[in-house]
Amino acid sequence: MYIRPLLMGSGPVLGVAPASEYTFITYASPVGNYHKGLLNLIVEEKFRRAIPGGTGGVKAVTNYAIIYKPIAEAKAKGFTDVLFLNAEKYIEEVSTSNIFLVKGNEISTPPTSGTILPGITRKSIIEITHVLGYQVKERAIPVEELFDAEEVFCTGTAVGVNSVNSITYQDERIEYKRGAGTVGQKLYEMVTGIQTGRIEDKMGWTVELD
């Protein structure tokens, strides 16, 4: 069940100014996994999803306008989605989700420093990985580290936890572990298990409604 709150300006204002009135709505819809089939990404080197001082750290519609053209171009080449970088060639996030890299017992993810959305699924995964004994680091990740990672997975409200099959950077394709026994699969099973009640919630996330 995907629950999305939405706040939009609805006052009679045509100028460049805050709306005089706002409408708040919440909609809910059953959803499946956002990505169908294997998740094959391509690194986007021309477009930047967000910049420091902008709105990249909030759930604003303006953050999605920039991604449509790169995604369309990527899909025309046979890729599933796009991995965005910042101006210094550090990994930011996939168009629809946060990203994690796994190497040994260490799991790394870019920090939420204003250009990356601090997703609740991202936060939940970080908490679970600590419980499972992994070393989790929120740090700037150079794009070159994609070549050294053993496993990569994405997280998001609609995406859930989805292992990445491959990432292509400068015409070089890197493939990653996925499936049974991987970190991504363990986390997927734990998160969905808590969500559906199959696994006892020791994290204190679920609330029983009367």
Automatic annotation (TrEMBL):
Lineage of source species: Eukaryota, Viridiplantae, Streptophyta, Embryophyta, Tracheophyta
Family of the protein in this entry: Belongs to the class-IV pyridoxal-phosphate-dependent aminotransferase family.
Domain of life: Eukaryota
GO biological process, one term: branched-chain amino acid biosynthetic process
Needed cofactors: pyridoxal 5'-phosphate
Keywords: Amino-acid biosynthesis, Aminotransferase, Branched-chain amino acid biosynthesis, Pyridoxal phosphate, Transferase
GO molecular function list: branched-chain-amino-acid transaminase activity
Pfam families: Aminotran_4
Protein name: Branched-chain-amino-acid aminotransferase
